[in-house]
Design a protein that fits this description.
alpha+beta; 3 domains; four-stranded antiparallel β-sheet; 11 helices; CoiA_nuc; Competence protein CoiA; CoiA-like_N
């Protein structure tokens, strides 16, 4: 915790303007209390960790309202508080008794949460519902390791994916004092994504927060180069580790006398650009050879794939074989449409 009140009911905020020696002197004569439960707090001043207030052990308030905070979490919300202090009058760790929640920072009508530790999906929804009930908008900033600008393939766990907002995951790294944007997300598997990474130093951030630029046609070409390379690796993985006719995909390929490494590039492509529960190649090869064209309904009877995905793939194939345009041009058009860029 970075906020407490003293015997005179005056709030004390541990910001970057207070050095350790000043805090050690103050600790000798002052007592500190929690704004939520009013219990006594300890002022911890180490040599390495960020100074902070802490409940005594076995505190109910510590269990229900506070995290077991790490140095990274404390540093993150302290830096974000400094950022918003340059814009207006934020409240650090403002306790909201109506919902018994304490966002890291409350600014205007936005509850900003810097999330370093893992948060269950149920607790995430519960907190959002609490903020919504008092007309606050939650803004989650999960921690991210330092990154460099560019296009990349990254793994995003299901835990981190819940912080996505539309097509962007906005994160923060207090070690480098940088906002890190993961945008233009294209799912390859349930946890593997093609992304555009944009790193923005804290001093260059604005409010409302900046939004990353749209993916250009040239950037999309590079995306697809990465996609096709991963597609090739996936096929090689299938050939090496999947086992003959016991595997449905390999049995399908064997029965139709297909060569996995010689499949048309139109098999195994992104179509609706939403999360792929399974690799696109697994179901597209069946649709391509057994159901195209006009086989959406018949395919869905036999296969548990999103109708949106199948219809998008049907549309892509129809245009590919009737229009004189490149495959990537068609995919980029669908990307623009599904991402809502136009």
């Amino acid at each position: 915790m970075l906020v407490a009140y003293d015997e005179k009911r005056q709030f004390i905020i541990l910001d970057t303007t207070m050095n350790r020696e000043q805090l050690r002197q103050a600790r000798k004569t002052q007592h500190y209390y929690c704004p939520a439960c009013h219990q006594a707090l300890q002022l911890k001043i180490g040599t390495k960790n960020t100074p902070h207030f802490a409940h005594h052990k076995q505190s109910a308030c510590s269990h229900y309202f506070s995290e077991n905070e790490t140095t990274t979490h404390i540093a993150g919300k302290q830096q974000l508080y400094d950022f918003f202090s340059q814009l207006g009058a934020p409240q650090l760790e403002a306790y909201l008794p109506q919902i018994q929640q304490r966002p890291d920072i409350l600014y205007e009508r936005t509850a900003i949460e810097f999330q370093y530790s893992r948060l269950t999906h149920e607790r995430f929804l519960e907190r959002n519902a609490g903020y919504a009930s008092i007309n606050l908008t939650p803004l989650w900033l999960p921690y991210s390791p330092s990154k460099e600008n560019g296009l990349a393939i990254v793994s995003l766990s299901h835990d981190i994916q819940k912080y996505r907002h539309n097509d962007t995951l906005l994160t923060y790294n207090p070690n480098t004092e940088q906002f890190i944007y993961y945008s233009a997300l294209i799912s390859m598997t349930a946890t593997q994504f093609l992304v555009k990474i944009t790193v923005l130093p804290k001093q260059h951030q604005t409010w409302p927060f900046r939004t990353p630029r749209l993916l250009t046609r040239d950037e999309f070409e590079l995306f697809m180069q990465l996609w096709y390379e991963q597609r090739r690796k996936l096929i090689q993985h299938y050939m090496r580790y999947r086992r003959g006719t016991q595997d449905m995909l390999l049995r399908f390929v064997y029965e139709r006398r297909l060569a996995l490494l010689a499949l048309p590039e139109a098999i195994g492509v992104p179509t609706d650009f939403d999360v792929e529960v399974q690799p696109a190649i697994d179901w597209q090869i069946i649709y391509y050879y057994d159901y195209f064209p006009q086989g959406v309904d018949a395919f869905l009877v036999q296969h548990d794939i999103s109708r949106v995905k199948v219809e998008a793939y049907e549309q892509f194939l129809q245009q590919l074989y009737t229009r004189k345009v490149s495959q990537n041009e068609l995919l980029y058009s669908q990307f623009i449409a599904f991402k809502g860029y136009n």
